[in-house]
Design goal:
- By secondary structure, the chain is of the alpha+beta class.
- It contains 24 helices and 27 strands.
- A five-stranded antiparallel β-sheet has the order 2-1-5-4-3. Strands 7-6-10-9-8 form a five-stranded antiparallel β-sheet, sandwiched between helices. A five-stranded antiparallel β-sheet has the order 12-11-15-14-13, sandwiched between helices.
- Helix 10 packs antiparallel against helix 11 and helix 21 packs antiparallel against helix 22.
- 27% of the residues are buried.
């Protein structure tokens, strides 16, 4: 039996630490039963699924997808791979599963390995900048991927067909219930995928009331480079118009009835055989700005916008003279010269002999749709201008800090491809010290809405740079909840370098570059806190160079300055890495020894060893202007917490001990005691 030759222990050796989801399953009729799961799969489904079938564990839709591909691998007796999308918590994940059939002893098994793969979101990024146009329009708008999946839809569309965006996003459009004729829609989309824009195509859809409705559809391909990545659809409800056109063909007095019925929804012109205007309805008069007297008896040349060629109109009349109905988009002009785009139906009418006696033009105003398409193109153009030509680093994240969009300047500066950043946490491009700063900012960001923050970024090659990030928090329109953070950043390395220089000068001695008294006051509370946590002691050594005045008097201040520098370096060589050497002024230095035990005898031994190293390094001396200097030093010592708990008290105590040394012998050290008062 295969379970003996491929036991759980061997399965774990192969797949236990794999980040992919790995399943070993046995065929059970038309279903498959879980036998072995690796750690990632158990975290996803739990170990309770072992022994159960796919139908018992998965939803119907997922079960059908899984079992159909497993069947395919078994029937073909070869490896099969398939891809699927999952929409979880407003995020899209794309998975690829490899299925390997295994046959043993008359039993059939499959080994399935599922891994997450990158999912291109460029078209969603574009929709982020376009969507505001369609939020309140009466037109239904839909964005469809080049795979036929529904990417976005505006509120009007969702309301028309009672859809939840979170449920239908990334589903195959042709599998949704409101599509009456999938083949017809598929043909239109396939044409648009070739880069062809389509207008005034009739679609029949089923609305939320289970009612068939007719729409004119415009298909606009969205290009990325030379590739169509999605198609933007705009739908107009023309149900009433279509119904009334049908009634016109079946009613003996259809002309008058049709004119009366659609007078409130469309503009109508009735023309004779020579295209002279016989009648117009009130809507046409109101829309075009002409009086009825100005129109009747004249030809349509008076409303010609000169947008279309003579050949365009010749083709229309060639068609209707054959007795056929023409439908398309025509741009007319109003009396004041404004363009008026109309979805136009050109209908011939016949006498009892079958000869054309009249034409009816039915105009449905689509100027708003044309304006929207123009604005859509302008937004795309503006989007490219901004993102491709600005030096600012632009990034958009959701409220969790997951990157939704990055500009070209951003990817170029960081050295990543856009696909490497989209869907990643923004902290992925920050240094460790800035990750915490950004996380704290996210927690309180919703309250501020607008602010700025300085963050250290790390490029793909490891290079770090400071950026001043100005951000704005906006509502996430797509999900109707949550928020998005739009951030514009600029590199500020030069400014930060100057700030660091000023900060260094404020807390360090300008001659020796050692920390100064101000730095000691700032850091001492932290040093004490660490000492208390570890139940350790500190020592404050007040160090004074012996006979330093003679160096200045005999060799001058330049040599004296170099002497102080070398004196400080000798002290630095004598102490440990976690100790602190501070120049207090002149030839006086303070040394903070950390990590000392609190046992008095052992502590004195620790301090004595360090003071011996100080004396040895000073005795080795150094050359200045061909002159050897080997100074000595007097040192006063005070212990924390024995001789004080404040910095001022410890410095005072060690200074008194130093004074005692200077008054007696020099080149020695004394530990503070109350008797020195």
């Amino acid at each position: 039996m295969l379970l003996q030759t491929f036991p759980k222990s061997q399965f774990d050796i192969l797949f236990e630490n794999s980040k992919d989801f790995v399943f070993f399953m046995e065929k059970d009729g038309e279903d498959y039963r879980y036998i072995h799961l690796n750690k990632s799969s158990i975290e996803l489904l739990s170990d309770k699924v072992i022994g159960k079938t796919v139908a018992e564990v998965m939803k119907d839709r997922d079960c059908e997808t899984i079992t159909s591909n497993y069947h395919k691998a078994v029937e073909k007796m070869e490896q099969v791979s398939y891809q699927d999308y999952i929409y979880v918590l407003s995020e899209v994940k794309k998975y690829e599963t490899t299925v390997i059939p295994v046959f043993d002893g008359g039993r059939t098994y499959v080994l399935a390995q599922t891994k997450e793969i990158a999912f291109a979101r460029d078209i969603e990024d574009k929709y982020l900048f376009m969507r505001s146009i369609f939020s309140n329009t009466f037109l239904s708008t839909v964005l469809v991927s080049n795979e036929g999946r529904l990417l976005e839809a505006n509120p009007q569309f969702l309301e028309e067909f009672n859809l939840d965006m979170n449920e239908v996003r990334f589903k195959n459009l042709f599998e949704l219930d409101f599509i009456e004729n999938p083949d017809q829609l598929r043909n239109y989309l396939e044409d648009a995928y070739k880069g062809n824009g389509l207008t005034s195509k009739i679609l029949t859809l089923i609305d939320k009331h289970e009612t068939l409705r007719s729409f004119t559809a415009t298909f606009s391909p969205l290009l990325q480079g030379e590739t169509v990545v999605a198609v933007f659809m705009i739908l107009q409800d023309v149900t009433q118009l279509i119904l009334q056109e049908k009634e016109l063909r079946t009613t003996s007095n259809g002309l008058s009835n049709f004119q009366y019925a659609i007078n409130s929804v469309a503009e109508i012109i009735i023309m004779d055989r020579n295209c002279k205007v016989l009648e117009v309805n009130d809507r046409f008069v109101q829309q075009m700005g002409f009086t009825r007297e100005e129109l009747i008896g004249n030809s349509l040349e008076m409303i010609d916008s000169r947008t279309h060629s003579k050949e365009f109109f010749d083709d229309i009349f060639a068609l209707v003279e054959k007795g056929e109905v023409w439908r398309g988009e025509i741009c007319n002009r109003t009396k004041n010269g404004a363009p008026y785009w109309a979805d136009t139906t050109f209908i011939p009418f016949f006498d009892e002999n079958g000869d054309i006696i009249q034409y009816i033009n039915v105009y449905y105003d689509i100027s708003e749709k044309k304006r929207m398409l123009t604005e859509l193109r302008n937004i795309e153009h503006m989007f490219k201008l901004i993102t491709e030509n600005t030096n600012d680093l632009i990034v958009v994240t959701n409220e969790d800090g997951i990157i939704l969009y990055v500009s070209d300047a951003y990817t170029e500066k960081l050295g990543y491809e856009r696909k490497d950043l989209l869907g990643q946490f923004y902290t992925a491009v920050l240094t460790s010290e800035s990750k915490e700063t950004w996380s704290d900012e996210l927690e309180s960001m919703a309250e501020r809405k607008n602010s700025k923050i300085d963050l250290i970024h790390q490029a793909k090659n490891g290079q770090k740079f400071w950026a001043e990030c100005n951000y704005t928090v906006v509502q996430d329109y797509i999900r109707n909840r949550g928020m998005q953070i739009i951030m514009v950043a600029r590199e500020i390395n030069d400014r930060k370098e100057k700030e660091n220089q000023l900060s260094f000068l404020a807390f360090h001695d300008s001659l020796t570059q050692l920390p100064n008294r101000r730095y000691l006051h700032k850091e001492f509370p932290r040093i004490v806190e660490i000492s208390n946590i570890s139940s350790e002691s500190l020592a404050v050594l007040y160090v004074d160079g012996d006979n330093f005045k003679n160096v200045n008097d005999q060799f001058g201040h330049d040599v004296g300055d170099e002497f102080i520098i070398q004196f400080g370096r000798a002290l630095m060589r004598s102490v440990r890495a976690n100790d602190l050497v501070v120049r207090m002024g002149g030839d006086e230095f303070a040394i903070i020894l950390t990590g000392l035990v609190r046992d008095n005898i052992k502590r004195k031994q620790q301090v004595n060893q360090i003071i011996e190293r100080i004396n040895q390094n000073l005795q080795q001396g150094w050359m200045i202007s061909k002159q050897l200097f080997a100074p000595t030093a007097s040192i006063g010592v005070a212990f924390y917490p024995d001789h004080g708990v404040s910095l001022e008290k410890l410095l005072s105590s060690s200074d008194k001990a130093l004074y005692n040394v200077k008054a007696s012998s020099k080149n020695n050290y004394t530990i503070y005691s109350p008797e020195l008062l």
